[in-house]
Design a protein that fits this description.
Mean pLDDT: 85
Number of helices: 1
Shape: globular
Number of strands: 9
CATH class: Mainly Beta
Order of helices and strands: HEEEEEEEEE
Structural class: mainly beta
Radius of gyration: 18 Å
CATH topology: Porin
């Protein structure tokens, strides 16, 4: 392979792997997670069960400032930290109790127009460890401001 071919290949990799620029990413998502599993720790071991459906919105997404807002039930409930990645952005919520919720939204699927997403909750209830993993989609939403 010539030096020119190597250089062109390296440039192609950089262009394809470049993160989405802030102006190209929606600033508001409506997310729906209707599949997944949850686990609770009882009697010395984890037990699994299907979780209830989950829906929320992520708004005020500012990739440059790495911040966003979580909307639950129509009310803004928490500030999110944004971690940018190749072909995805992860939104991290630190709940009031210190537990973590993470949502990774991937680039738009050209076939469906939706953004595939996964959501993970790490928490506890009455002193018992619990966690849940969801899969679903987010849809770009126009802010009504």
């Amino acid at each position: 392979m010539s030096k020119l071919q190597i250089g062109l290949l390296a440039l192609a990799v950089i262009v394809v792997a470049a993160p989405v620029r802030a102006g190209e990413w929606p600033t508001h998502f409506a997310c729906d997670f209707n599949q997944g599993h949850s686990w609770s720790y009882e009697g010395g071991k984890f037990k699994s069960a299907p979780p209830a459906d989950l829906a929320f919105e992520i708004s005020n997404i500012d990739l440059d400032k790495q911040s966003a807002s979580l909307i639950l039930g129509g009310q803004t409930s928490n500030t999110l930290k944004v971690v940018r990645a190749l072909n995805a952005n992860t939104f991290i919520e630190v709940a009031n109790e210190g537990f973590l919720n993470l949502t990774t939204v991937y680039d738009r699927d050209a076939a469906t127009g939706k953004y595939p997403a996964v959501h993970s909750r790490h928490f506890g209830l009455f002193g018992q460890p619990m966690f849940a993993q969801y899969e679903g989609n987010c849809t770009a939403k126009t802010d009504s401001k």
